[in-house]
Structures are given as structure tokens and as C-alpha cells.
Amino acid sequence: MKRVSSVWIVSLIAAVLFGVLTVSPASAQQKNIILATTTSTQDSGLLDVLIPMFEKKTGYFVKTIAVGSGQAMAMGQKGEADVLLVHSPAAEKKFVDEGYGINRRLVMHNDFVIVGPPSDPAKIKGIKSAVEAFKRIASTGSLFMSRGDNSGTHAQEKAVWKAANINPEGQKWYQQTGLGMGQTLNVASEKRAYTLTDRGTYLALKKQLGLDILAEGDAILLNIYHVIEVNPAKWPKVNSVGGRAFADFMVAQETQGVIKTFGVDKFGSPLFFPDAGKKDEDLGK
Amino acid sequence: MDLILDGIKKAFWLLVTLDPEVMGITWLSLKVSGIATLVSLLLGISIGSVIALTRFPGRRVAVSLVNTGMGLPPVVVGLFVSIMLWRNGPLGFLEILYTPTAMIVAQAIIATPIVMGITLAAMQQLPKKLRLQIFALGATRLQMVWILIKEAKLPLLAAVMAGFGGVISEVGASIMVGGNIRGYSRVLTTATVMETSRGNFDVAIALGIILLLLAYVINAILTHIQQHERPR
Description:
The complex is a heterodimer of chains A (285) and B (232).
Chain A: H1 2-23, E1 32-37, H2 39-43, H3 46-58, E2 61-66, H4 69-77, E3 83-86, H5 89-97, E4 101-116, H6 130-140, E5 144-146, H7 152-163, E6 174-176, H8 181-191, E7 194-198, H9 199-205, E8 212-215, E9 222-230, H10 240-251, H11 253-261, H12 264-267, E10 273-274
Parallel strand pairs in A: 1-2, 1-3, 5-6, 5-7
Antiparallel strand pairs in A: 3-9, 4-7, 4-8, 4-9, 4-10
Chain B: H1 2-16, H2 20-53, H3 59-69, H4 74-85, H5 100-124, H6 128-136, H7 141-151, H8 153-168, H9 172-178, H10 188-197, H11 201-228
Helix pairs in contact in B: 1-11, 2-5, 2-8, 3-5, 4-5, 4-9, 5-8, 5-9, 6-7, 8-11, 10-11
């Protein structure tokens, strides 16, 4: 009996040592890049295609942390990420102006669309102006699901409310999920609510959602993604070389070509439109 | 309902074809939670025994703290561990944030109070006279503790199961300190969350089923040991 117990103890300790040794291999630190990005680039599957390409080409190991754009920038602000791929232009400008980020470059765009139940209680179908559509949702008191998570989509949605001169906070028809885009779409679908979504995530999930695109095409609904390198002058521990390499990769011609065709086979239309080298003002024209 | 059937089919398919990504995710879950449980056993049983067998001022407070710790919310642990492990945080020099090692640390913190609390309860319900008897037979203190641990074997195996069950099913801390990085720190629970938000409900359900199967197999083995060594 006694022997059995000591065998157990010895094997337990051996297992712990073995485990710790195998799980934490000696890693070359500067080979790791922390990419803080929005959920839409991960949920749409785009990064599953691009990251392996980049890793194979450069030998870097990318740690993709998919959070909202707000949190991604907060990570950059604390020097906890090396490079950001985000879609919240106003906040991005502030981020760069305050010296946290450098070299902000345009990568791609798609657009936001207003989706809602096919019955369309607020009668917004076909309205071109997003502001007008939001006004109707508010005036009819139709349920609206907001991300409520400081993401790029949430920032965009707030901008439209502001343009419509409506403060939806605290209204009974206005609910916040605090979740990612995919989950918010599911909630909206279940509750027959309207919501603002990027087209990519909507297309990726469309098959199981009871939601239709009701309003689209307004210039205010452009969804623009930039890559920003975290400023190593603020945070010396930032892997600036790696961050630069990833940012360069995102705007490289080959990558842009992949972005252009990504999703066509699965959804019949591309999810993102490559824009490297263009200017923000020229988009959507 | 169809979704659940699809999920079961998908789980079956992923398992028979030994889908390499899913196998990797499953293996990592097992490895991370297994090691975290082992660490928690070493810490939980040793410290738990000391608290159970000694008298010191503030002991009741300590016991209450341990018992509260049994309900530590994983996300809170995840948040604190993240802040500690940030590059520019106090333990940033370790450079282990967003690695499986960080997940082991967080899960060990979650499991240790569970193991400790059950150890405490198990050791305290051993008859007091047993200790006197062991001493009377000439045992040293360390030998005495060892014998008591062996006496409490059955509830201690329950502690193993509770600790392991707590961490293998936890998602909040793993996603925060591990980052759900593909092929590196993605485990069954974090993959389930991601597949759900991607709308791949069949895959999400399949991953959930694999998680349940894994938990069942581990617990069946532990239960077998426990019931095998049960005093007859």
C-alpha cells in the first residue's frame, strides 16, 4: 500500500516538471508580435488566412488578441500590444495624436449596414440615409441592439445617433449587449431587433440569422480599417520591428490581393475591399 | 434541436477523423488544466493540511478566506493575473502573458482554494484520537501528516475532481491570459466561445461535447481509483 502511494507522488511530481518544461519552451522573445485587433477581423475568418501567410513568410509568431477596437487601443496605450488593426477612425486619430501610435496606414474597408427583422416595424427599408433610418427607429420605439462595448462598430453607431440628434441611452427600446458583433447579431435576431453591423460579420453569419439588410450605402456608414504601430518611444518593451513588419505586410500588394478575394468563394461577394495607399477621403466614391 | 443533432454529428466526425486542430485544442486543454490541477494539489493539500492540523491566531479568518476562495470568479482571477503579467506590470519580466503557462498560473489560482477547502474539511473530520494514536506509535510529525493524508484519500480524490472540473470548464481566465491564439493557447472552452460568436454553432456544440467526454473520461478514471481504494 505504502509503495503505491509513493509511486503516485513521484509520478505526480514528475508530471508537473515534465508539463512545465514542455509547455513553456524557451522562446525567442523578439519573435513574438502581439496584434490587438477587432473581433470582426477574427470572426470573419480573414486573420485565419493572413496570419499563417505572414508567419510563414517572416518567421514571426503572431499573438492575435481579438477584442473591440476600444480595448485594442487601450492595450496599445499601455504598451501591451505591438501593432493594432482597428476600425474606429476618430479614436485612432486621437490615439496617434497623443503619441501612442505611429505610422497609421489605411488597409481596407467595407461598410456598415443597418439590419433588422424582415417585418421592419420602423419601415426603414430602402432608406438611403442612415441618420433618417435611426430617427425612424427611435420615433417608432423599435427595439435596437447596441454593442455597447466601445468597439469600432459601437463608436460608429454613436456617431450616427449624434448626427440624428438623438440620445438613445436609457431608452426602453435601446439595449446594449456588451458582446462582440457575432453575438450581438444573434441577440438582435432572437429579439427581432435592429442593429448596426459591419457587412463582413453579417454575411458570415447570415445563414442562421433572421435579419435582413434594410439600409445601406450611406457614406457615413463606411467601415475603415487602419493598421497602427504602437510607439516604441512611449514603451521600450514594444516589439517595434515586428510591429512594423506586420503593418508592412498588411499593406503589401500580395496581402491586398488576398483581402480582395477573401470570402468570394463562400459568400459570393468579398467581405473587405483593399485600400492600401489610398486616402481616407477618397473612399466610398 | 437540429443544431444539437448537427453538433453531435460534427463532434463524432471530428473525433473519428482525428481532426488535427481539434485534437491539438483538446490536448492543450488537458495539458493546461491537468498541470494546473497538479500544482493546485501540491499547494492545496500541503497548506490545507497545515491549516487543518494546527492552531494559530486568525485561523478562523484563514479558513473563511479559503472557503470564499472556493468560489473565486475565473474572470476576476484572469483580470488580476493579466495585470500582474503585463509587459509593463510587476511580473512583466517573465514575459508569459498570452502563453499556456499564464493559463496554468491562472487556473492553478482558481483550483488551489477548491482543493484546499476540501482538504481542510476532509482532514478535520478525521477522528482526533487518530493523531494521538499515530504519535503513540512513535511517528514523526511528517509521518503523521502523511498517514492522515492517506486516511483522507477518498475525499481528497473528490478534491482532485472538483479542482480539475473547475478549471477544465473555465473560460473567463483562459481567454484573458491566454488570448485564444490559434494553435497556441486555444483550448476547448475558448474555442467554443469563438465558434459561437462566429455563428458556427455546430462546431461550438461539437467542441462542448468533446469537452464533456474528456471530463467524463478523467472523472471515470479518478472515480475508479477512488472506489477501488474505498475501505471495505
